[in-house]
Structures are given as structure tokens and as C-alpha cells.
Design brief:
Blueprint (H helix, E strand, L loop, with lengths): L4 E7 L6 E7 L2 E6 L2 E5 L4 H13 L7 E5 L5 H9 L5 E5 L3 H8 L15 E4 L3 H7 L4 E6 L14 H4 L1 H10 E11 L4 H10 L2 E8 L8 E8 L3
Parallel strand pairs: 5-6, 5-8, 6-7, 8-9
Antiparallel strand pairs: 1-2, 2-3, 3-4, 9-11, 10-11
Helix pairs in contact: 1-2, 4-6, 6-7
The structure holds S-adenosylmethionine (SAM).
The site of S-adenosylmethionine has 26 residues, from strand 4, helix 2 and helix 4.
């Protein structure tokens, strides 16, 4: 068995955790606080996050999508595959090192999505964008922790509370979709989405692109028209 090798690490701002990038042969792993945030061999549910959200806005040829965060670029690549030539993807990534990894050792994994002209990468906290924007996006895809609890960055808790969900609601165009990835279900979060005014679907999806592996949860929360 080839041992894991630490390639690089980066500290989340404030009192945030350290993200570590490991490699074992052609396999990569991003870990935070001893927990695997992402493995390059398992990305079915990260793809599904984009595929499911894009399917709900397929009638919008010039759709504008906000994705947080970049990770290994799978969600971004899947969104690009679903969007037409006039579509636009803004990726908010908290850690500049993750963007650097995606332009370097991780670039090939998802097929170099950052080279696509339709993509803009902002090295920032997605919360900053959500606080500023009004009716700017057709879909917002959120996969920044292991679920609706701050893991990478304690202040990510704001995103999943009432204020963060209201900001996401306001940043969406009418009938736009907020899609949130999680390792497991969370009934209180489902309830909060509904209380914010979203029409909520909670889906259980397979972890692997081949349809196997464990199950992850994706919420598709639609802002009414
Ligand atoms: C699980 S990974 C995302 C995986 C991604 N869906 C993919 O397909 O590879 C989480 C990413 O979110 C980033 N992140 C964490 N908090 C963030 C925030 N508040 N704003 C933007 N990015 C954030 C992390 O640095 C990490 O790159």
C-alpha cells in the first residue's frame, strides 16, 4: 500500500482549522481537523449537487451560478457541463491555497474547470457575497463543510442559521435554487429552510459516481417565483 504523503497545508482565517492536502499515487485527499473533507475517488454526490440544481434551472440559457467552495473542482466542472455557452459560474473559495492546488496538482482531476472562460474564481468567504447580493443568482451551490455546521471555519455556522439562509434567499432570483451538500440528514436544517420561505426537497444521493458507496444528503431549496 502506498503511504499518504502530505503535499501542502493552509490555515482557514480567524480561528479556522488547517486544511491539509495529501496524495497517495493518483489519489488525493483534503482533510480538516482529522476528518476527510474530500477524496478524489469519491465525488458522485458533489457532481449531483450541480446536476440536480442545474436541472431545476435548465430553462434559463444565461444562468448565473454561485458555488462555494472549490474543493477539488468537481461541483464546478459538473455545473459547467450542464450550463450553456451563455451561463456563468462564480466560485467563492475561502483559501487561496485551494485555488492554487486546483491550478496545480488537482487541476486534472475534474478536467481543468478553472480554465473555462465562463468561470470566475473569487478568493473570499461566500458569506461576504451572500451579504452583498440581491437577486443575482439562479442557483447557489453550497458545499463548504461536512454538513450544515461550521467545520472548516467556525463562522460558517452563520450560513446555515436564519440570517445566512435569508441572505441566500435574497441573493437568488425568483424561482432560483439553493442547493446544500451534507454527509448526513439534519431535520432542524430542513425546518429552517422551510421557515425562511423556501420550498424544500431533501434528497438522498449515492456517494460514488458509479452509484455505490454511502449516502449523502442534498437539499434543494427553491425560492418561490
Ligand atoms: C468539501 S470542499 C468542496 C468540494 C467541492 N464540492 C468539490 O466538488 O470538490 C469544501 C471547500 O469549501 C471551502 N470553504 C470553506 N468555507 C468556505 C467559505 N466560507 N467560503 C468559501 N469557501 C469555503 C474549503 O476551503 C474547501 O475548499
Amino acid at each position: 500500500m502506498i503511504p499518504w504523503q502530505l503535499i501542502d497545508s493552509a490555515q482557514a482565517p480567524g480561528n479556522g482549522e488547517e486544511l491539509r492536502l495529501y496524495r497517495r499515487g493518483s489519489e488525493f485527499s483534503i482533510r480538516v481537523a482529522g476528518c476527510e473533507l474530500m477524496n478524489s475517488r469519491v465525488h458522485g454526490s458533489e457532481d449531483a449537487l450541480a446536476n440536480l440544481a442545474c436541472a431545476r434551472i435548465a430553462d434559463r440559457p444565461a444562468a448565473s451560478i454561485l458555488i462555494g467552495g472549490l474543493g477539488m473542482g468537481y461541483t464546478t466542472a459538473a455545473a459547467l457541463q450542464r450550463l450553456g455557452a451563455a451561463g456563468r459560474v462564480t466560485v467563492a473559495e475561502l483559501l487561496p491555497a485551494v485555488v492554487k492546488w486546483n491550478r496545480g496538482p488537482l487541476a486534472e482531476l475534474a478536467g481543468h474547470p478553472l480554465l473555462d472562460d465562463r468561470v470566475t474564481v473569487l478568493e473570499t468567504d461566500i458569506a461576504r457575497i451572500l451579504r452583498m447580493e440581491q437577486q443575482a443568482y439562479d442557483a447557489i451551490l453550497l458545499d463548504v463543510d461536512n454538513g450544515p455546521v461550521g467545520l472548516t471555519h467556525r463562522s460558517n455556522d452563520w450560513l446555515y442559521g436564519q440570517a445566512g439562509l435569508e441572505a441566500a434567499f435574497a441573493a437568488l432570483r425568483p424561482a432560483g435554487v439553493l442547493a446544500v451538500w451534507s454527509a448526513s440528514p439534519d431535520r432542524a436544517f430542513t425546518r429552517r429552510l422551510g421557515q425562511t420561505g423556501f420550498e424544500v426537497e431533501e434528497l438522498s444521493v449515492r456517494a460514488r459516481e458509479t452509484g455505490g458507496g454511502g449516502r449523502h444528503t442534498i437539499w434543494l431549496a427553491r425560492r418561490p417565483s
